[in-house]
Amino acid sequence: MVFLSCPGSNRMVLLDKDSPLDKADPRLRRIPFVVRRPTISETKRVIKSMLTVYVLDHADDDAAEAQRKKEARALKESAALAEQARREEQRQAAKLELQRQEEINKAKNREKKQRQKDRRKLQSQQEQAAAAAGAGEAELDLDAQLKLLAATVGAKAKEKAKEKDKKEQKGMAPKQAQSKARALKPDDAAARREKLAEAAERRAAALAAASSSQKFH
Prior knowledge:
This protein is an all-alpha fold. It has helices spanning 9-14, 40-51, 58-171, 174-183, 186-216; strands at residues 2-4, 28-30.
């Protein structure tokens, strides 16, 4: 075997195509340690190092390897514990955030239901007020209609009474008319007309009450 140490551009010069050494030759090996300047003393040192056999203490190496594995295992366990703690912290944070969101949603739902309840209550009050106002207007209209009907019936009754009086006066004989005129005083005639008007008004009131009860039922 040929041991060679020529770093950098010197290796290209030494192993070019015209060189007797072939870089693909398996017998050509590299010196397995650092080589200083190519002097006689350095050459002697390299030869001495290459020809020297070194005995290593495997027990120390095994202990060091065991210690290294132990430290690596402890480091790995510590990293696993740290990762587990980090995941648990994230899980707790996510749980708290979920609870907070649920509370916010519940509060929003309560506010929404309260607003809907207030809106329905206000709408109901407005409808009741509108219904009461409509009923009041209808009652006023009904009262006005009843009064108008009573006045109309009374006027018609008075007209009928007057027409009847006129017919009776025209159809009577002069004597009978005189005797009736003597028998019937002006005050009695006025009282009779008032009674007829009152009867007509009572009849109109009864008709109005009957129509009002039918309307409410």
